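Journal club side-thread
Mid-discussion, someone asked how the predicted structure for our own chain would compare to the paper's figures. Pasting it here so we can look after the session.
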Amino acid sequence: MHWRLLTSIAALWLVTGCGASFRAFPMADPMWRDDDARPIATRPQVHYNPWAWDAVDNTTFRQLSELWTYERDREAMNVNALDEVPDSTWFTNRIGRDAMSDEDLARGACSEVDAPPPPWVVIRSKPDGSGPGLVVRASDGRTYLFKVDLSQPERATAADAIASRIFHAAGYFVPCNRVIHFTPEDFTLAPDARASGPSPRPLVRADVDAILARAGAAPNGRRRGSLSAYIDGTPLGGWRFAGLRDDDPNDVVPHEHRREVRGMYVLSAWLNHIDSRAENNMDSWIETEPGRGYVRHYVLDTGDSFGIVWPVDDALSRRFGHSHYLDIQHLGEDFLSLGLAPRAYTESPDRPEHPTFGFYTERDFVPDQWRNGYPNPGFERRTERDLAWMTRIVARLGESELAVLVAQGAWSDPALGAQLMRILLARRARILERWLTRLSPLTWPAASRDGRDVEICLDDLAVSSGLRDADGRRYEARVYRGLPPRPSDAEVRVSASSARVCARIALPPGAAEEYVVVDVIASSVGAERTAPARVHLYSLPGGEVRVVGLERPDSESAP
């Protein structure tokens, strides 16, 4: 196990360990990089996660096996001293930590905003998945998967582009997806092109034209599709939402106890990405030198987002996000209640409400009741802190950022983009209301000294996200000093400017190092009063002040 990971886990134990005694943060910088990209000599084996087995296992066998096991609820293991997730081969802090430009948002995981120009050379047909497609080589030398929309005009191609960029902005590794407008002449056939399947054969022009003919219409007489770039490295199969990869010595935190895996629940609920499963993820071998490399972990396919409807079953489709495909709990409740148990989806129309977005709406959306297509072991371990963490990232995806992202859908009718914006903003508001009002929304503490005073400042995401009005916001601060910390009578003045709140504390530098804890509490008139953001710092003899930790306790009890 990495020494840095051991250090972070030990620090987490020091803070949250058993017993009532106070445990201080060490004087150390918060960990911002998990060293899990150390080159290893043996490339891991390819793992295959068949959809049917994964669904059956997580719906029945895993549920039955867990009836006979006892597992205490536990917080995620890979959290640093500021209650954040370090960068790793799983996750990179992006908009949650730093602002992103419009160009960065529009580019997403792509090296350029615009797709490579045609011609696109077809080398084979798409080997698997729910719809037809082609594998093409573009002028930039990269290989892409070309797909078209099926029964819902423009939804799947737009979801590929938009949802992947939302996941990317949040911090995940995703493929480069773009919507393209094309003519059949933009596609040429490689001499050795093959049709995929149990009995491969040469691919002929008629095969290509049949797939292109299924594409929806686009402006100027063109057709519409999407290009998804093959990810870097060598694919090793989808990563699972629980357990470890035994052949990867860098994989040391069980996936179900990774905060970014648990927190993905919030994004999936927001977008109604019901297909969060192993087969839609991918591990990739990134070679750093001949014969050596590491594994990077991708979220591969989010194209079911924004209201996928299965053409064969509208009744099942309207349950998406409300119940699993086979929901044992709901079946039992319906049996015991003779079918009278209330279900949000029973208020939905029998047919899709919108030809593009199906049953995707904000009307019946209850964030913490959302359900994946089938049970997900990572999502089932989620805690309030995991969901609040991802919600703080969602809070930074405001209306202007979402406008840039939704525009990547390249809609033929602007009304479609406007409709999606309305739904996303409304569902986002419910997510913020649920997970930004229990634990403190104050974040990113900074400390500075001004003479005999120390100033602690934090961002209030409830205000910057638009959830709460700055004029109705109230703040107070409490100071504790020493080890163990005792209430201090030091003078504290609290001020706020827009979404930035600062506590100025009369704390002259001393001759010795001093441990200080500052609780900053936010409330809104007529609404919630959250427990504090608890900032831990050291006041050093030379006058320096150093933030070493941030906690979000459940109550206002003294540390």
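Post-session note: Residues 128 and 444 are 44 Å apart (CA to CA).
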